[in-house]
Write a structure and sequence with these properties.
4-stranded antiparallel β-sheet; 7 helices; 8 strands
Amino acid sequence: MSKNVLVLCTGNSCRSIIAEALINKELEGINAYSSGVNPSGRVNPNAKKVLEANGAWRDEYHSKTLDKLKDIEFDLVVTVCDHAKETCPIFPKPIPKIHIGFKDPDGKGYEAFEATYEEIKTTLLPKVEKILKEQKMNKNVFKTDNGVNIKFTGVVQKQQIVKMVENCATGQCECMSDETKKKINKMQVEGKDGDVELKLDGEITKEEIEKALAKSKVLNKK
């Protein structure tokens, strides 16, 4: 499952653009986006130049506000300047945040942008990759007197499990066989983000549910 990273700085013209481009170029399975708390509306020409020189530039990169990315669910937020750290917005759902500050090369010569590029590559990328690789959803399936329970912990949102149950209830579920669906009398979601329990009542087996979970598009979305 791919991960989404948001890189925040003040103007979204140098550091965050370089970080966005580097993550997209170097880290497989991770999609990076950037924005500014007070975006300048332009990408610094030297930032673009250093990215072009290293084969990391994309024409889609531009300076923007966070509301342009409101439909994306992020797995990690990275602030790369102190002002962005202090004014980091509140997100509707809890998202891990880290701060890795870099000096602003804006107003300096091209060499400063080359140095920033290398510093972000060697400092920020390994930390982002490590954090996201350690993020995962854990599933514990166990038999009960009434059926089967599934305990979800780690990187899991309650709404994610609710959505999966809704799909099953409305016939949109493709992971569970019709035979298994008929055996379930009741589905109940309890808990909170990071610790969710799904209770399935009926004459079902642990193996049937484990097989269905492996096929779930909601849990295993790309």
